[in-house]
Fold each of these.
Amino acid sequence: MNIIKPQNLKPDQLYISDFSILQKDEKLSYYNFKNESHNNVSANEIEFEHCRFNNICIQNGKLEKFTFMDAVFDKCNFSNTAFSECAFIRCEFKNCKVFGCNLSESRLYNVSFTDTNAGYISFSLTSIENVVFKNTILNNSYFMETKNKNLYFDNADLTQSRFLKTSLKNVDLSNSKIEGIAITAEDIKGAIIDRFQASDLLYLLDVKIK
């Protein structure tokens, strides 16, 4: 597992700013956003480089064509917010809540989710490369036609998650929860599981256990 961390992020060198005053087509570098709450926000085409987001709450928002490069999100709540056609490059989510988020048609490159609640998250038509979900809840998550390369699940909860036209070849699921996972035999082919998880996938064989 070789996930590149955010680069050039030094807290004492970041400017303090307010998320609510941002305008379309803005590009912000070396800023620290913290302790803000904004619901039902709608914004698009804003770029962030070398930024930190601490205790930011944006619920039920609509953020389109945002770019986050070398960014850290710590204790943030983005529940039910849509990040459509966004890019996350060298980003970290730590102790966050992205429950019900929609990341459709977005790109994630060198991104880590740690101790995060990502239940009901959607990665429909998303490109994922060098991404790890560690100690993260992904129950009822949705991966539809998701292109992935170097995808890692480390003690993730994938209960009742759905994979459609998303190959998990060479993806290690052995220490994650996969009860009730919905996937085709073609998409699970080549995945790594342990012998106890095999029973959760017997339905793919259309057999009955006596």
Amino acid sequence: MKTLNEYMAMSCRMKIAEDRDESGYVVSFPDLPGCLTCGETVESAVANAMDAKKAWLKAAIEDGIEIQ
């Protein structure tokens, strides 16, 4: 099994969408179901997304969920 750092280094498609209702951006990872976050700027949304990705992967590893 790979380590968290190895999974973090893997390429993972990130989807960024403008949230006109909240005046910010929503970021999700289509290959990581339920992994999404937001931010006021694209930069803050991407930074938050990396934290969300790390938390999602850590939980998946702990729960024995297969990560592709």
Amino acid sequence: MKSVLVIGAGKFGHHLAEYMCEMGNDVMLVDKEEKLINEYADNVTTAEIGDYTVKSNLAALGVGDYDYIFVCVGNFQDSLVITDYLNELGARFIIGKASSLIHEKFLLKNGAKKVIYPERDEAYRMAVEFTSSTIFDYFKLSDDAGIYEIAVPDKWVGKSLTDINVRKNHNVTVIAYKDNGRIMTVKSPDYVFSANQHIIVMGDKKNINKIAR
């Protein structure tokens, strides 16, 4: 179990807080809007109302005691101020939510250890899903790499991992296959690709797009 502070109870922040709580974490959700806190307080461990652009209000939360602090404030300036104060107050690990590349850059400069960019990431995932009829899902690992659920390429059907030598010839790694909704890990190089299955592959976007065409 992790101790988590979520600052900002907007659309992203309250969902994040609730999911973190459902997964067994100790979650405090805070926001300056009383209406939002009243609406979501019952779905998290604790909740408080306050203006956390005020350093003393942040200090009163004991921010150094949390494993993770998520800054999910939509206002550009407020999120930077809060992140900077958290850093000064000794927060262990700050994760900032960015709305643009410049926002991401300044959050990192102000002390965030990691930045999430949900609108951009979801937009890319949707673009991937609806551009190709052979790509069914996507999870971003970095700007250049991800994990994709794709249809088995026609040329691979009936052949094994060893036959194709996927990693050497295509620079991607097959980590699992999906059959009737169940995901099973690929444990043997003797695994044979089937036309009625999807495969879960990890690698560079360009290489995966080549085999998914």
